[in-house]
What we know:
Two copies of one chain form a homodimer. Chain A has 14 helices and twelve strands. By secondary structure, the first copy, chain A, is an alpha/beta fold. The first copy, chain A, has two domains: 4-48 and 301-394, Aspartate Aminotransferase, domain 1 (Alpha-Beta Complex); 67-295, Type I PLP-dependent aspartate aminotransferase-like (Major domain) (Aspartate Aminotransferase, domain 2), CATH 3.40.640. In chain A, the strands form three sheets. Chain A has a seven-stranded mixed beta sheet with strand order 2-8-7-6-5-3-4, sandwiched between helices. In chain A, strands 9-12-11 form a three-stranded antiparallel beta sheet.
Amino acid sequence: MLPQDMLALGTKRSAIRELFEYGKMRKAIVGDDKVYDFSLGNPSIPAPKEVDDAITELVQNGDSVLLHGYSSAQGDANVRKTIADYLNATHGTKFNADNLYMTCGAAASLCISLRALLLKDEEVIVFAPFFPEYVVFVEGQGGKAVVVPPTKTFQPDLEAFEKAISDKTKAVIINSPNNPSGVVYSEETIIAIADILKRKSEELGREIFIIADEPYRELVYDADTVVPYITKYYDNTLVCYSYSKSLSLPGERIGYILVPDEVFDSKNVYASVCGAGRSLGYVCAPTMFQQVVAKCCGKTGDISAYKKNRDLIYNGLTELGYECVKPDGAFYLFVKALEEDSNAFCERAKAHDLLVVSGDGFYCPGYVRISYCVSEKTIIDSMPAFKALSEEYKK
Amino acid sequence: MLPQDMLALGTKRSAIRELFEYGKMRKAIVGDDKVYDFSLGNPSIPAPKEVDDAITELVQNGDSVLLHGYSSAQGDANVRKTIADYLNATHGTKFNADNLYMTCGAAASLCISLRALLLKDEEVIVFAPFFPEYVVFVEGQGGKAVVVPPTKTFQPDLEAFEKAISDKTKAVIINSPNNPSGVVYSEETIIAIADILKRKSEELGREIFIIADEPYRELVYDADTVVPYITKYYDNTLVCYSYSKSLSLPGERIGYILVPDEVFDSKNVYASVCGAGRSLGYVCAPTMFQQVVAKCCGKTGDISAYKKNRDLIYNGLTELGYECVKPDGAFYLFVKALEEDSNAFCERAKAHDLLVVSGDGFYCPGYVRISYCVSEKTIIDSMPAFKALSEEYKK
């Protein structure tokens, strides 16, 4: 007798992975350039040169035993200091090494934070549309996900948010720039969320935490787009960061959790994070990549390629009559399906070898996600297929 | 209100880490060469040259997007095939890529396996002495650890083992070569354990799994020492492996879980492993190091250094009158304390700047663990201190 929840999670693959595997199979049949695979959020630009230079330098000149040996569970102290200094210089904050806990990437950051905070059956609020694995992570750590339905702009529905807060609410996950909508939550939104949380915390007599999931922070494309740094608006904020997207290192599993001093009972929250990491089997974050990201603080891959892609696909699809909110960041476009049932729409797209992900999984039916972290050519070549698909619906 | 179990785990550091931090502080005061730090199981020999060569080659010639991108959750298919082939050539087994699930090291392998197998409050049997984090991992995944007390040879107490099996037993952890005793469980022992499990499984009408935790498999020092490959003796065996010790890569977090076809309901156990990995936030094992270990299959660091250390410290201490079982493998010596209270003994050792870990944490009071993955010089220089310590007890 196996735990049925684990078995179900392992048997029923995520819809995104399923589609990606289908794409691989289909490409083998009709050719790579005939399948327009917009399924995965896997960065398509190489890591910046600084990453490979750092690796080569560390391997050539580093002490092997230190380089590949255990770091402390929190992560190398110098690495954490470097990251704190970078954050302070960028955001005008006052963090230090002891506010940071290095992790094996964003998923680890989230699971560890949730395990560190949640008592059994406490609730975590998520704003639709959102990354489907949030529910897996929350439930895996003993909590319950409470979904706030989407608005048309994909900025959070503040009224519904306030109503969703209960005497079991422990945390709210904020993901901006957002997967799958590409929307950046405005400063106004962040201030409003913070105000509601302060009021409700007092009213309910309980601390409520924001968990800011920020792997896309650096991926914004317009000069006037500002991604508010949430710790400056709300004290009880933990930041979960990953270098997966900014440095194009998603497979290397490297990121961190930031627990500012302003967090209520900060030292104990940090200790609980350390305990949760132990309990989940995270001994330390990969040590060589700890050094690599410290050496590459503030660097990114060539993000201009994503901006070009965004403009190409957003302009192309809106010209064809598709409806979507223009994404400010990340590398996703969230498009209204041409029929109510977005799963059915995805199936019809598939017949044109257009692989897009149904919004149902993101708790936002009627939409589809297009990951535009692909080659420019894929976008250009896909336009006739998008055109043919939309024309089908006009018949 | 934070979860008190996580807070406790994060606040109360492991005794080993505590001692290690003390050692660092003490070295800063009296000098590196005046402190004989035998606390940590951190490999002291560098990774084999092949590791750094593989990294350099991958970074120079690999496609950055593929090299650092996500692999499938199970791990790269070619990497898994290479490892399966290596295991088959070494042990005469018939594994294939689909029996393997790549992980972020041994702790991840154990936590994922336990989460994949355990229903709430099911029991996992461990043989003392054992690595203290086993209890953390078992409890973290909702199970209960049941401890079988040690014998004088540190081979498992088979009678006590049989008595410990109940209608809640789901798994037994076997760790050989053993941390902290260095003992290798004989083939006779493995056969006896398998026989008992087969009998009790039938009697209780439930499947019981062996979880073989094998990070020290390659670290054995005598020509006649054989470490039985447990899947050949007992069908329901999952192997949790890590390259931490064999390739001296403990910080890089890379290992695997092996689920042989012979395991009961094998496909579902594997699926449950995949589900557990998702639930705990393990997206994939670090991708570049997946490639590195595939290129270094069967290689090890220069293990002869550990053998030399073992002989030096074993002979040195027994000549001084200390009692211990000669270790066949790993890099630990488990020595009888010179008084009943091994914590008190450790404190007295500390006064001589000898840092050894009390057996209490390993569920084996009256002993201390000496990690001899240190420089030869440390061992030689420490002998006068060990002598002075033993003489203190003769007064």
